[in-house]
Amino acid sequence: MHNINMANTLTICIVVFLLCLSADGARKVSHTINTRNGRFPKSLDSSSDSDVGICQSMVETVGYSCEEHTVTTSDGYILSLQRIPAGRSGAQAYKPPVLLQHGIFADASTWLMNSPDQSLGFILADNGYDVWLVSTRGTKYSSGHTSLSTSDPAYWNWSWDELAANDLSASVQYVHDQTGQNLHYVGHSLGTLMALAAISKQQSVNMLRSAALLSPIAYLNQIPTLLGKAAAYSLIGDALYWLGVDEFIPGGEVVAKFMNAVCNVTNADCSSLTSAIAGPPCCVSPSTMDAVMNHGPQPTSTKNMLHLAQMVRQGTIAMYDYGSADGNNQHYGQPTPPVYSMSNIVNDFPLFLAHGGQDYLSDPVDVQTLMSSLQDHDSNKLVVLFTEEYAHLDYVFAGNANQVVYDPLMAFCNLN
Length: 416
Hints:
Blueprint lengths: L1 H18 L34 H6 L7 E6 L4 E8 L12 E5 L18 H7 L3 E5 L9 E2 L14 H20 L3 E6 L1 H11 L7 E7 L11 H8 L2 H7 L4 E2 L4 H14 L6 H6 L7 H10 L4 E2 H13 L10 H8 L18 E6 L7 H10 L8 E6 L6 H4 L3 H15 L1
Helix pairs in contact: 1-6, 1-8, 4-5, 6-8, 6-11, 7-11
């Protein structure tokens, strides 16, 4: 009740505050945010260096061969993929393909931020895997569309429903067609939600060997921080959506002022937003965090943020709720959004789940709820790795993740 009352107070403060802002300000970027303490960086101009792809800027520079690819989703979004077909020694891949899917506010560079012996993308390539990276729609390298521009509101009319149904299926199909092999899938954060939603509906399962889920997200109603709960219960996404702010840019003027309002009303310690929202990482070096923040958190849709907030408020994993029986009937033919049933995941589909005790977004209690729904899963097809000191970002950026997470992950892939 305290969280809801706080959220109601926050809602009033923020909605009044928002009405004083121009929606056009959402595309402007604050230039006063400190990157070292985990706040957002100075620029999110997605056009600034998108002509220099990930291959040229992050892979070839450290001695690996790399190929740039694109695939178009069924609803017209043009996604960027990169392939690392060989290790740094030049030895060609001899193991199955692996598709790496990043989380929210990120892109495929997630898997390449550390040194080659600490970054999963390079580690897999050096261990003989055919590595594929993909960036979701709306991010810097995947901002294209067959008929829409990012300035069109319709471009941003999607949530993670479409990421699961369209982006994931297009990427998996493309890698399968290019390699002629079934593939392993590795997702982090939102990338795990995409996979769970898809495989619970048996989408793409026939082309997948396994799914490794780092910081798995299916249920979000136990997030422990007042900051996170207040942000969800305050209907921030609803207010932005109502004001016509379709693109959610972390560090943009509206969002930055939003977060300041949330921090002030909740009295939360926001000196490091990454720690306040995702949990304090144990093992990410300051230089890595600087590199991550300087690369720039990537945009998503406001509708996607609203969908995630619905998960927190409602405690379910369901399709986007249009807010009324009429709205849901129009989209789904029923008064409530269809539910993604985790118990529908095929019992013998190989799953690797890695979660941490300090993770505020993939909270251990929520992960246990997921595990309960998988209680009938074949025990020899389910690996669960718990690391008490790990938080959300440790799974992709920790200096010791190669031993703590990636070695067990590759052992799992080798068996499947």
